[in-house]
Amino acid sequence: MAIESPKEECGVFGILNPQEQVAESIYLGLFALQHRGQESAGISTSDHLKISKKAGLGLIANVFDQFQMEDLKGDLGIGHTRYSTTGRDSEENSQPLIVSGINGEISFGHNGNVINSGELKESLEQFDITYSTTSDTEIIAYMYANALGNNWFERSNYCMRSIKGAYSLVFMTKDELIGVRDPLGIRPLCLGKMNDAWILASESSALAHIGAEFVREIENGETIVITKDGVESSIFSSKSKNHKMCIFEQIYFSRPDSIINGQLAYESRVRMGESLAEEHPIDADIVIGVPDSAIPAAIGYANKSGISYTEGLIRNRYVGRTFISPNQRLRELGVRTKFNVLKDVIKDKKIILVDDSIVRGTTTSRVIELLKDSGAAEIHMRVSSPPITSPCYFGVDMASTTELIANNFDNESIRKVIGADSLGFLSMENLLTSVNSEDNDYCRACFTGEYPIPIQLDFDKFHLEKIKEKK
Ligand code: SF4
Question: Which residue owns the Cα nearest ligand 1 atom 8?
Fold first, then answer.
């Protein structure tokens, strides 16, 4: 968690394990992906006769108990943890979804955001579908359920020609597990193996969590079909031409122990901190990072600068999304409920405070105020990414353009607004070097405004509800 985080997207997980029931492995895998979405969670399984499903609002541990897991039978299954990037966080929008079409019944999980869902919905009109959700996922699910083609590779290529945006998919029939990564490869998806079992997951850390080996990342434009006979794959477009992985997966979203675009996210973040120290050096007593996501960058800054790294902010781990609506007094406590300050450590110190991003700036200013109120002499803010100037249309809930502080102010004005004694952002050039970027292979549109595909500027996450309300 950065001080003020863009909201993560979703986590997807799938497994076929001919040797055992898979519901518990999916449950554990979703735990490792909980950081990617905390609004709802769900699991579908198949015993090759029928697909069973349980999904609901809240954290994985809130949604499932022992008895419900026992109802989820079968050696094949998928799981999903959701943050709503389109559609409200209602129970009906919880995934996996189950839909039927000319290709039979499928259960479907999606990470990302499709930007032409209205168009896709029109293309499905001939099928007379009654939608039960307001998410773009249901539209893609029906696209796949009704796609032309003799097998899932042909159907997936058929869908990829029409769907625009970010989509890492994990879905299943009663007998097959299927993974798809969009032609730009914006969201991550990887393949793992454990004895006779094959696993698909948003992040490699989820594989390790169930004791599986990381095999490889799914390529952009790749469809992978897993059956009891093994794994088959087909690629729609070539990696070299189009790969546009979200660079924010490296900066913040993915767990530090996940491999993203061939790089361990932890090591990328340490390199960002080292580059930040070279780019924006300052004389100070200690370096502290905002827990947890900025800690690797803070360590990198300390290594390169020779200034000691220490903990100064302690995150209150279990304050997060709760079902309790805080009263006014608790709301006013704001960041004080999220972080405690180690006052004796920071008292009278000149501090380099490292965070991975600044979105609106409001919470950053409160943390700086908290540190100063607790006795810090100076706060030098260092950010391990460039200023965010544009919103994301590919599955990350940033803020609107007008809410982004870097869209409204230059660096000196931001420094004044947040109350720092100095401020430095990592340059794009050094960010790309830190992630060992080759051939312009990352989406970085929220920093540059240059989107890898044309976007509708009036898109918002509730647009499907608005279409529904107009009818
Ligand atoms: Fe990631 Fe930013 Fe591109 Fe969205 S716009 S996919 S957050 S790099």
Answer: 444
